[in-house]
Write a structure and sequence with these properties.
Rossmann fold, 5-stranded parallel β-sheet, 46% helix
Amino acid sequence: MHTSALVLFSGGQDSTTCLAQALSKYQRVETIGFDYRQRHRVELDARVKVLAEIRQTFPAWSDKLGQDHLLDLAVLGEVSETSLTRDTAFKMEQSGLPNTFVPGRNLLFLTLAAAVAYRRDLQVMVTGVCETDFSGYPDCRDDTMKAMQLALSLGMDKRFLVDTPLMWIDKAATWTLAHELGEKSGVVGGGDALVKLLIEHTHTCYLGDREHHHPWGYGCGDCPACLLRARGYEQFVQAV
């Protein structure tokens, strides 16, 4: 039985929802983030705020939430020519992938997360990758996650589990999942509280915009990440 987890935590909607699920599921949970000189580095500030808000708002989860790790991955920014690591316009490439795709990012994230999990004796790595509402990134696919789980388990001689709770749900269902997790947290009105936390404190916008506020949160409102988040929120609200 798995009792401990390391959540790949960016400070965004998806990874915060994954963190909430991990806190409801595992007895000991730690978080890890990566500074790869991303264009939207404001998400690193969001990480700190979100963790603080979770500790304050959800006491039962706070007792399970352990150490946060932030790794410096400047080298990933140096080798990447993408719109997430350079000041360039968003566009589709000839490969059929958007130029927001950072080659090797999730593979590197999982490898380093596994190294930390090995040292911290954590059994599960939780990541918010998804095949339903995504941009076609090959390193978000279920097959990729299963291959990484096998490779890391073999390479470190430790049986890791890569948990992907959002893999087969869309963004609207992610909002719904967050509300359900909040309701089960033991906090009165916890569902609405977690949704509010997502809106006010998580960060998704690729441009790092924290000036413009929308019903679904802060962001430019035009980049692919904002459009996906906004559409999911609208569908979530309509379904409630």
